[in-house]
Amino acid sequence: MKVFGIAGWSGSGKTTLLEKLIPEITARGLSVSVIKHTHHDFDIDKPGKDSWRHREAGASQVLLLGSQRWALMHELRGRPEPTLEEQLSLLQTVDLVLIEGYKASAVPKIEIHRPAHGKPPLWPDNDSVVAVASDVELADCPLPLLPLNEPAAVAEFILAHLESA
């Protein structure tokens, strides 16, 4: 599977861009999966629901299944967070896996950079950043600059980059 990342500081627009990229890429006939990395504690379950109660009782894994989707919840219970490679091995084979986050991974990625947010760019210290998507011109950036608000152009860049790799 080909893997490509979207990285940037919190609030830069990673999720919004991915939300627009997925239909651009699937419209070209490719299958896409997403891995989102977060540093925040999260729970897709709801307190009091059966699956939540099973986890609270100590189950290591709970698979929730319905007629429209299924979800596998895995409790780490103090064990280290799995690596990106371990997570990729859990996915069914698709044409492209887009990852959100994983700034330090060696996966090629586009950085979303908005100078108005006051955060430094990642690209000067991150060799895996192959392009920058922004809503303004960045005169000092030596990498390809992509228009953040044009997801078709960003999708074209990603697919062309993966094709040439």
UniProtKB/TrEMBL annotation:
<dbReference type="Pfam" id="PF03205">
    <property type="entry name" value="MobB"/>
</dbReference>
<protein>
    <submittedName>
        <fullName>Molybdopterin-guanine dinucleotide biosynthesis protein B</fullName>
    </submittedName>
</protein>
<dbReference type="GO" id="GO:0005525">
    <property type="term" value="F:GTP binding"/>
</dbReference>
<feature type="domain" description="Molybdopterin-guanine dinucleotide biosynthesis protein B (MobB)">
    <location>
        <begin position="3"/>
        <end position="135"/>
    </location>
</feature>
<dbReference type="GO" id="GO:0006777">
    <property type="term" value="P:Mo-molybdopterin cofactor biosynthetic process"/>
</dbReference>
<dbReference type="InterPro" id="IPR052539">
    <property type="entry name" value="MGD_biosynthesis_adapter"/>
</dbReference>
<dbReference type="InterPro" id="IPR027417">
    <property type="entry name" value="P-loop_NTPase"/>
</dbReference>
<dbReference type="InterPro" id="IPR004435">
    <property type="entry name" value="MobB_dom"/>
</dbReference>
